[in-house]
Prior knowledge:
By secondary structure, the protein is an alpha/beta fold. It is 42% helix and 14% strand. The protein has a seven-stranded mixed beta sheet, with helices on both faces. Helix 7 packs antiparallel against helix 8, helix 7 crosses helix 11 and helix 8 crosses helix 9.
Amino acid sequence: MEFRHTSVLLQETITYLNIRPKGVYVDGTLGGGGHAFEVCRRLEEPGRFIGIDQDADAIAAAGERLRSFGEKVTILRSNYEQMREALAGIGIYKVDGILLDLGVSSFQLDDPERGFTYREADAPLDMRMDRRQSLTARDMVNAYSETELYHIIRDYGEDRFARNIAKHIVRARQEKPIETAGELNEIIRAAIPAKVRATGGHPSKRTFQALRIALNRELEVLKDSLDDMIDLLQPGGRICIITFHSLEDRIVKELFKKNENPCTCPRDFPVCVCGAVSKGKVVTRKPVLPGAEELEENPRSKSAKLRVFERA
Length: 312
């Protein structure tokens, strides 16, 4: 299956990156290389681009798409959680810009074998971003305790029926292992009142999202990596992050704010005595959202939000 992904907020992201033609830029979620192509187009010698992704299919597709840029481009198979170490391994310790597009690619959603979609009944419960990882969503739904499943669905899916869904999953797997998206769909459907099912969109959406986020440690990786990535930036360098989930957006918003104003002194102190120094400024006080034209062309962009931070 051809790797396809429509890059969200493409022009806005390129504009906010404020690209220096001779700079060094990193895309920590390379995907199909849509954002990367536009960055590379604006680079001159000795400018460099480093793309990082943990998905082998994405790396193959991006490598082909960026082939014309030659040695200007380096692609690494890794998680952006290891960005500092990965860059150090190729002799890079400071960069001029970083981009993260945290959405699941259209390819991953549309390929039933990847198991991200609830719309294909026969799709396996996989959901791994990095298929070198052994743990799958199937393992989670068949082995995790009812309490663990409840917390995952409640915290990451924000589903008010999380407790009942977890209970139904545990009950169903006592009869036989849960193998496919269709089987899990039926279990979730039975756990949600008919009135809600009739008006609330697909009943499985939140649970599938929650399992994917938990399986791939998406929020933990973001939370643990952001400060480190800001430290990698040269003065005036920018980090642009596109989120698709309220929990991701909240993490980015709060950590950007903390890096801009790290002071921990009580508010009634006349001067700062904690010694914490600002690392820069938040460029986007409110998130940048897709315009009407993009929403019409790509409905999957509707939950996208772009936030930008600039290093001092």
